[in-house]
């Protein structure tokens, strides 16, 4: 069975109906995409209203020729109108009105800021719902909602449980909370098309399983955890709607996206085994309707790959997808799918990274999503090789070891600078990538630090490079970091401690003190990360031990 790795733009087979498969199943260990359906006229200019016929019609899509600005996404859809970006005004009042059956004023924006009292403190309603009392979570009373008219089930308003669609203002606010963090969750879709699809007929909209997963993550990313008390409700709704989607084979692309987003949520909460459980599914799709859908389906594969590898690293369980079985091409920028500029020169996948001279080892032109995929793949492979017992290090092991080491070295040399991106999300992604690549190098060489000088030297160099990154992130909120960065930082801390001892043994007191200062700076960053991901306390304890 051939995959996109053998030819992204191949003609579909003339024998039988072409189809698109995305498959992940623990019994078979496979997840593949293949057999692209050919589409004539693959140039897409949504921003200027020149979408080809296969794009479909969106009643809320403004097909004006307005140029892209900071307030629009590249498809020309106004973000202010689409996702309530006007700020945090009136959300509490609107939620209260909604729960009491009142209508919301048309054109109002969503937010919390109108709930302040004269003293500047949020007003506390006389009655409020403890959404999560049964879960042992105490919500902030200032952000709770009055309930006079509706009964509740385990503290959750029945009106919220009995319907799939939230009021638009509430929906848009939760989406707005999620979208800035979507890259961290691997949600790589055409945002203009996604937003336009929200108001399509019910059965053409994103499936409730995807929407509830997005609402759940929106609550997770709410400022100061102000909506964390709503998470159990959206988690329950996401789980039940996932089961419905699979049972009826309904919008299975949304099912896979939702499953992976739910896995991310559990990883963020330190519930690693549950996250790994939600990352297993087997689904067959119809052919992609157009290049944009092809782009999204390829990214579904890599999102599932990322959550699979992250779960394997976090839990120690074996991963479901073998590198050698993957033929899906690495993620490519959306622009290439819109403009029809993809060629077979872009055809590379996991195993190509380990081929000397292959362009897959050049990271300079990769998309951020592609860099995240490569760095996580390298970290998992390095971790796995480092755990091979000495007696099992065969010639095959050493071939994989050398190929991985060369790939790490070449990719590290070609990575974009951390501040070469377009904002905090790009910067946080590049921090993630640089940290993983340097941590992977140390992890790969860790069994040989005491016996092979070249391995020790490579690890010291990688630790120095990782610390250069650490010193650049003092002013970045730790919520923008990935939990698994802690694993790489532990590897770096081990090298720093070794360097302290080595320098002390040769009476290099100045050098030892410098390494101690580096270690202190690293531990300070790790403590910041622990505040976001409490499960890292165990890893931090390990780093603090000598």
TrEMBL record:
Its main location: nucleus. One of its GO terms (cellular component) is nucleus. InterPro entries: TF_fung. It is found in: Nucleus. It comes from the Eukaryota. GO terms for molecular function: DNA-binding transcription factor activity, RNA polymerase II-specific; metal ion binding. Keywords: Metal-binding, Nucleus, Transcription, Transcription regulation. CDD domains: fungal_TF_MHR. This is Transcription factor domain-containing protein.
């Amino acid at each position: 069975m051939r995959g996109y790795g053998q030819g992204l733009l191949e003609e579909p087979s003339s024998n039988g109906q072409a189809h698109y498969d995305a498959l992940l199943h623990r019994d078979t260990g496979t997840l593949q995409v293949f057999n692209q359906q050919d589409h004539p006229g693959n140039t897409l200019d949504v921003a200027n209203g020149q979408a080809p016929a296969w794009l479909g019609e969106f009643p809320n899509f403004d097909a004006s020729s307005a140029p892209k600005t900071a307030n629009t996404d590249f498809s020309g859809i106004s973000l202010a109108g689409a996702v309530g970006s006007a700020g945090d005004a009136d959300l509490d009042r609107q939620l209260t009105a909604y729960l009491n059956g009142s209508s919301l004023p048309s054109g109002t924006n969503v937010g919390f800021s109108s709930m302040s009292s004269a003293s500047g403190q949020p007003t506390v309603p006389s009655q409020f719902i403890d959404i999560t009392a049964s879960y042992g979570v105490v919500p902030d009373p200032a952000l709770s909602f009055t309930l006079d008219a509706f009964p509740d089930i385990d503290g959750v308003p029945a009106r919220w449980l009995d319907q799939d669609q939230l009021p638009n203002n509430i929906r848009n606010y939760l989406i707005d909370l999620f979208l800035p963090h979507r890259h961290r969750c691997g949600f790589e879709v055409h945002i203009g098309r996604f937003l336009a699809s929200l108001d399509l007929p019910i059965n053409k909209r994103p499936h409730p399983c995807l929407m509830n997963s997005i609402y759940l993550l929106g609550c997770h990313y709410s400022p100061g955890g102000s909506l964390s008390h709503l998470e159990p409700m959206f988690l329950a709704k996401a789980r039940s709607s996932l089961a419905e989607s699979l049972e009826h084979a309904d919008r299975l692309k949304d099912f896979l996206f939702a499953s992976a987003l739910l896995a991310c949520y559990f990883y963020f909460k330190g519930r690693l085994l549950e996250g790994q459980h939600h990352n297993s599914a087997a689904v067959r799709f119809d052919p992609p309707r157009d290049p944009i859908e092809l782009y999204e389906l390829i990214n579904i594969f890599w999102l599932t790959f990322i959550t699979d590898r992250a779960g394997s690293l976090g839990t120690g369980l074996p991963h479901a997808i073998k590198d050698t079985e993957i033929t899906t091409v690495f993620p490519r920028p959306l622009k290439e799918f819109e403009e029809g500029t993809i060629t077979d020169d872009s055809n590379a996948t996991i195993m190509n990274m380990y081929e000397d001279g292959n362009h897959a080892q050049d990271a300079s032109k990769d998309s951020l999503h592609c860099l995240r995929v490569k760095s996580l793949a390298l970290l998992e492979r390095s971790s796995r090789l480092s755990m091979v017992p000495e007696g099992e290090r065969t010639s095959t092991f050493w071939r994989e070891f050398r190929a991985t080491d060369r790939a790490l070295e070449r990719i590290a040399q070609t990575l974009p600078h951390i501040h070469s991106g377009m904002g905090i999300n790009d910067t946080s992604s590049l921090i993630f990538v640089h940290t993983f690549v340097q941590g992977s190098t140390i992890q790969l060489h860790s069994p040989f630090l005491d016996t092979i000088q070249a391995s020790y030297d490579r690890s010291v160099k990688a630790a120095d490079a990782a610390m250069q990154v650490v010193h650049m992130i003092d002013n970045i909120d730790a919520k923008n970091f990935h939990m698994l960065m802690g694993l790489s930082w532990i590897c770096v801390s081990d090298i720093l401690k070794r360097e302290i001892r080595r320098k002390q043994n040769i009476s290099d007191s100045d050098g030892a003190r410098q390494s101690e200062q580096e270690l202190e700076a690293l531990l300070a960053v790790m403590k910041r990360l622990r505040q976001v991901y409490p499960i890292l306390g165990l890893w931090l304890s390990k780093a603090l031990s000598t």
